[in-house]
Amino acid sequence: MQDVLNATTLGSIYLLFALGMALVWGTIGILNFAHGATFMFAAFIGHLVTARVELPLLGVIAVAVLVGALISVLTQLLAFQPILKRAKNRHAAELRILIAGIGVAAIPLAIAQRQTRSTPFGLRSSYSPQVYEVFGLRITTTAIIIIVLGLVIGIGMTLWLRRSRHGLALRALGVDAETSAGMGVNRTTLAFGTMAVAGGLAGLAGALLTLQLGAIAPETGDQLIIKAFAIIVLGGLGSMAGTVIGAYVLAGAETLVLVMNWGTWVDAVSFGLIFLILLARPQGLLGRKEVRRT
Amino acid sequence: MSTWYAMNVVLVQTTLTTLLLALSIQVPLRFGVFSFAGVGAFGIGGYGSAIAMVHLGWSTWPAVAFGAVVAGLVVFLLGLVVQRLTGLYMGMATIAFTLIVSVLAVNGGDLTGGAMGLYGALGEISVLQILLVVLLVVALLHLTELGGMGRRVDAVRDDPELANALGVDVVRYRQFSFLVSGLIGGLAGAITTLLRSTITPAEVNFHLVILALTAIVVGGSRSWVGALIGAVIFVWLPTWIGFLAEWERVAYGVIVAVAAIYLPLGVLGVAKDLWHRFRTREERARVAALAKES
Questions:
Q1: Which residues does chain A have within 8 Å of residue B243's beta carbon, measured at their own beta carbons?
Q2: Can you tell me the distance from the alpha carbon of B28 to that of B276, in angstroms, rounded to the nearest whole number?
Q3: What does the pLDDT look like over B63-118, one tens digit per residue?
């Protein structure tokens, strides 16, 4: 049972991280490879700030969310927007965006590695987690916050994308960007908004994971990118509900591997999943059939 | 000359092996396949040759050939499996493949030496021999850039439907590009490993993907000359500029992002553009002069 609880906490972190990436990729069609670096750097700035001033829990989280959103918007403004403007066709733009994302991701990673000498860093806050025991299960307040936030934001995002007008506009962009732009959807504004939300979620995930583990290494973001990709592919591109399910499935599978004492194989789970899903069911569990744009 | 050579022999070696690694990613790109499997092949080739030397007691060049052939075969089989994927999906599946190679190496027990890697595979390789291998590879690749073959490869990349209609077997060409990528990547890995006498799983990581990609993106992705320019820039630049050595990785990131945004065809593309413009102007002047005379 304790393992199930751990898997749920891990899954919620994955979910918060992957939701932003899935939102951006599924709607405005950008696979943001700098998402992992955004996640890490938001936590890193939080680390620098809290090293000077002690902040309450909400303050730490607010710093991380704001920094995440800021980095994400800057990436869009300085890298992705110019590429979209200059590229001749979608296919060429996709590859250049991926490469630019890899380049952008290297910058904050290198800065953080230099500052910390590649050692893990943590967050200082006036908040101290309590440990509860319910039915013999140990759970910290941090874990409760992570699980609740993960579920609320995950389900909220799914509903918002399905019900609201903005959600409709975003989904329309994901299906056919040109037609929806012709129908009055402001693509540029929505792109910036989406990137800001995604970056904020990355920052949130960064702060929460750091609080949960005590410290994270600068390279954590790189590993999460591949995992988030596995989650999105598993759930199906463009489907938020699929992302929610994918996050918990991956976390469950990884926890299972850990419990079975095959610890060194944990990373192979996500890599293997990417392979299996892409080969067997490329549209994912809940994805639309026509989602694969070439 | 000889003192300069003695001082920089390691850099010369690194330039040549980096060139091979960059070529292993560039070849599939030239065929329109976004594959990073060459870096996985680097790992397979390195481990293959080290295993042949350490466990089987083979001599240097048979071990290198063994590593390269195994890598070529594995990547070719991978190509058969993933050939239906396109664009980003192909890119991520091959990145997953590369990282799986590293996980397998960690879990390989005595055969691969686990997380510590394999030691004591010191081959006898002179710079002249590497140079000959590189020249052979480059000469063969140059043939695919000339005349009818070059135009067919361009068509396979830029317009696969058109290529198909013209009777070019796109699928066969792309499978072939996987085989070549695997062989070259394997060669790069085998030579690098036997020069250094060790290989560890941590070497086959995401950073290697970035290095290879950087060299191509900056140099130019359409010709082996571009890969050569990129390899030279990235191996020698830090030694020329002390400032860069300190901020090497930050500079990598900035350069990759800027190149992806503003120079999609790399330094070579810019040079060709300028040359073309210069020629056109000269030609126009000549025609104008002729017109005046008559």
A1: none
A2: 26
A3: 999 999 999 999 999 999 888 787 778 888 888 888 888 888 888 777 877 777 78
Percentage helix, strand, coil, to 5, in chain B?
80, 0, 20
Do the Cβ atoms of A278 and B82 come within 8 Å?
yes
Judge whether B47 lies within some domain.
yes
B37 touching A (Cβ < 8 Å): no
Check CB contact of B56 with chain A, cutoff 8 Å. no
CB-based contact (8 Å) between B59 and chain A? Answer: no
Angle at the Cα of B86 from the Cα atoms of B85 and B91, rounded to 5 degrees: 90
Instruction: For residue B158, give both structure tokens.
Output: 């830029």
The Cα A113–Cα A104 span in angstroms is 15
The predicted complex's ipTM stands at: 0.78
Tell me the mean pLDDT in the region A162-174. Answer: 84
What pLDDT shows up at residue A291?
45
Reported as a single tens digit per residue, the pLDDT across A233-269 is 888 877 888 889 989 999 998 888 888 877 778 778 8
Q: For A111-131, how does the pLDDT look when each residue is reduced to its tens digit (9 = 90+)?
A: 888 888 878 888 877 777 777
Residue with the larger pLDDT of the pair B246 and B237? B237
Tell whether B228 is covered by a domain: yes
Q: Domain residues for B115?
A: 11-293
Nearest residue in chain A measured CA to CA from B216: A99
Asked whether residue B4 is domain-assigned, the answer is: no
**Is the Cβ of B92 closer than 8 Å to some Cβ of chain A?**
yes
pLDDT of residue B245: 62
d(CA A209, CA A217): 11
pLDDT digits (tens, 9 = 90+) for A134-147: 777 778 888 888 88
Contacts of A232 in chain B (CB under 8 A): none
Residues with Cβ within 8 Å of B219's Cβ and at least 6 positions away in sequence, in order, are: B22, B225, B226, B227, B228, B229, B230, B231, B233, B266, B267, B268
pTM recorded for the entire structure: 0.83
Q: What angle do CA B190, B195, B200 make, to 5 degrees?
A: 65
Residue B277 maps to a domain: yes
Q: Given this model, what pLDDT does residue A132 score?
A: 79
Count how many domains chain B has. Answer: 1
Query: Which of A31, A100, A267 is opposite residue B103, by nearest beta carbon?
Result: A267
CB contact under 8 Å between B261 and A105, yes or no, is no
CA distance B43 to chain A (A): 16
Q: Output b/e per residue, B4-37; b: 16+ Cβ within 10 A.
A: eeeeeeeeebbbbbbbbbbbbbbbbbbbbbbbbb
Find the range with the poorest average confidence among A205-214, B101-110, B147-156, B175-184. B101-110
What is the C-alpha separation between B36 and B89, in angstroms, rounded?
A: 11
Considering only CB atoms, which residues of chain A are within 8 Å of chain B?
A: 31, 79, 82-83, 86-87, 91-92, 94-100, 102-107, 109-111, 113-114, 222, 226, 229-230, 233, 264-265, 267-268, 270-272, 274-275, 278-279, 282, 292, 294
The reply to whether B23 touches chain A by the CB within 8 Å rule is no
CATH assignment at residue B143: 1.10.3470
- Residue B188's pLDDT band (cuts 50, 70, 90): very high
